[in-house]
Amino acid sequence: MTARNFAFLTRLADAAGTVILPHFRSALAADNKAGHGAYDPVTVADRGAEQTIRAMIAAAFPEDGIYGEEFGIERADADHVWIIDPIDGTRAFLAGLPLWGVLVGLVSHGKPTLGMMAQPYTGELFVGDGGSAHFHKDGSTHTLHSRKGRPLSEALMMSTSPRLFKASTGDLEAFERVAGAARDVRFGGDCYAYAMVAAGNVDIVVEAGLQPYDIAGLVPIIEGAGGVVTTWDGGPAHNGGRIVAAGSPELHAEALKLLVA
Question: Which GO terms describe its biological process (predicted)?
Fold first, then answer.
């Protein structure tokens, strides 16, 4: 990763944190953008952070496209499109749990080339470009390496919620096949779980129903750390859908066999 890219992502992370942190662990109200019968919260922190990130990208790269969760897409046909989730894990944010993050990804000519996951409350920044990945905190930077050599029977697996998987589509049964073969399964984490795959603390994440802004910024980090992230059928992950991220190609392949069995 070039110093220029790292510097820009750091500026985005710092600016987003300035907007978000005054609202964290406050008496913050949320709107439900899902409508009646469902729940998808959004707050002034989500909206304010995305507006700030969009403005900074537009100023630095005026020809690039921008796709954000809260304000949609501009210049969708651009060669380079920035994909933003200002607070991935808004439910955790509202609960006062630091298991949320600011996600920014860059897709160039249809391929994820740059990604960032920032956790402003803990001061952590995870970045990657598909070839390498790094963790930054308190002025120090460390190279990220995903964990290798663990079969599924020894793996720590994570997913945000079992509610992601529908029994009617067979997704719940597929998830339970993988979860049943893993040594341990933990729920919660949202984007933070994927960062932990890159960091070598978690072995595998399995989820469904993701949007592009939920995953595009994480793909270059996981791949840069030596991990593998695809859809359940082995396709590109950056467009969302049913996602599996693993610390090693061998573990990823083992999980895919169970997911499509």
Answer: inositol metabolic process; L-histidine biosynthetic process; signal transduction
